[in-house]
Amino acid sequence: MTNKKMDVPETLPLLRDRIDAIDNEIQQLINERARCAQKVAEVKLADQGDEEVVFYRPEREAQVLRRVMERNLGPLGNEEMARIFRQVMSSCLALEKPMRIAFLGPEGTYTQQAAIKHFGKSIVSAPMAAIDEVFREVESGSANYGVVPVENSTEGVVNHTLDSFRDSKLKICGEVEERIHHHLLVAPSINPDEVTHIYSHQQSLAQCRAWLDRYWPHAERVAVNSNAEAAKMVSESARNGRSVAAIAGEIACELYGLTKVSSNIEDRPDNTTRFLIIGHQDVPESGQDKTSLLISAKNEAGALYSLLEPFKRLGVSMTRLETRPSLMSKWGYIFYIDFEGHYQSEISQVLIKELQACASEVKVLGSYPIAVL
């Protein structure tokens, strides 16, 4: 009878040799893909001459990632496999042209985390102090694209982002959804029992309200511009002996050398934030797209019904409807609408024409691939 334990020393080296051979093959194929990416850049530059060359194609990348997930047979999960390919694509694109991405900073925000998830790690990061600064950085051409938060599944819309689209000529080029996990953080030298103030973005404080009411009712909650700023403040406050804490994510915890007091303190475990990718280009159809509109309604009876009725009649799925004061007239309103489909499709063109007939203004903010990851 064969002793299975006796087979292990012989089998394990063979498996390791096989892994080494596979690693070697993978490395060669990745470099071959990188060389193809460089040739793509050369062809684009030769074909477009003096015109500005577009290296990043959101619809193309979305199609590639969808195919990766469709053909995946495991044992790695679809999203894990797509993330691996996402980074390979990011590294190859950087060989064509490294992209500078503006995002709501400072370093360590969830917005930076979303930027890395969407573009990969091979980007030049450009943290901005406020959302309108992200818009200006992209508008000026100092950044290729920007990443801004637009809505949270718990706390709703980010009004500052919506309002920034009113006068901006930028287009929405993509979206990314990020599961948000909040942690209570302190400097290593601080006793958590002595914490008197908790810093975080107002959205994060709201998303952890019930947990804070239960476990930290006596600590004063202080809203700041971002979670990363809160983490940075806590790190700096420790040098002055102040007993303060921050609510922030994993990337901020690592970046500022803080210690977790409690993990995943968000009130809802499915807490998710949606981010938008903003840039100058119109994105062609990818096959699974979403369109965002800004609509100024006429101040008349039945105005909202007139805007919504064509969606039902034409069978177009609306995924979001937000209302903001127009700032142009008393009690006037602007509607932000998302719907499934690309604005260049036949049905979307019919829809937009009908909306234009019953609205003061219809502005297409962009059509873009539905988030893959």
From TrEMBL:
Coiled coil location: 12-39
Ranges of residues in domain Chorismate mutase: 6-100
Locations listed in the record: Cytoplasm
Pfam families per UniProt: CM_2, PDT
Keyword Endoplasmic reticulum carried by entry: no
Domain ACT: 292-369
Name recorded for this polypeptide: Bifunctional chorismate mutase/prephenate dehydratase
Organism placement in taxonomy: Bacteria, Pseudomonadati, Pseudomonadota, Gammaproteobacteria, Oceanospirillales
Reactions the enzyme catalyzes: chorismate = prephenate; prephenate + H(+) = 3-phenylpyruvate + CO2 + H2O
Pathway: Metabolic intermediate biosynthesis; prephenate biosynthesis; prephenate from chorismate: step 1/1; Amino-acid biosynthesis; L-phenylalanine biosynthesis; phenylpyruvate from prephenate: step 1/1
EC number: 4.2.1.51, 5.4.99.5
Positions of the Prephenate dehydratase domain: 100-280
Matches recorded under InterPro entries: ACT-like_dom_sf, ACT_dom, Chor_mutase/pphenate_deHydtase, Chorismate_II_sf, CM_dom_sf, CM_II_prokaryot, G/b/e-P-prot_chorismate_mutase, Preph_deHydtase
Protein purpose: Catalyzes the Claisen rearrangement of chorismate to prephenate and the decarboxylation/dehydration of prephenate to phenylpyruvate.
Keywords, comma-separated and alphabetical: Amino-acid biosynthesis, Aromatic amino acid biosynthesis, Coiled coil, Cytoplasm, Isomerase, Lyase, Multifunctional enzyme, Phenylalanine biosynthesis
Superkingdom as given in the UniProt entry: Bacteria
Gene: pheA
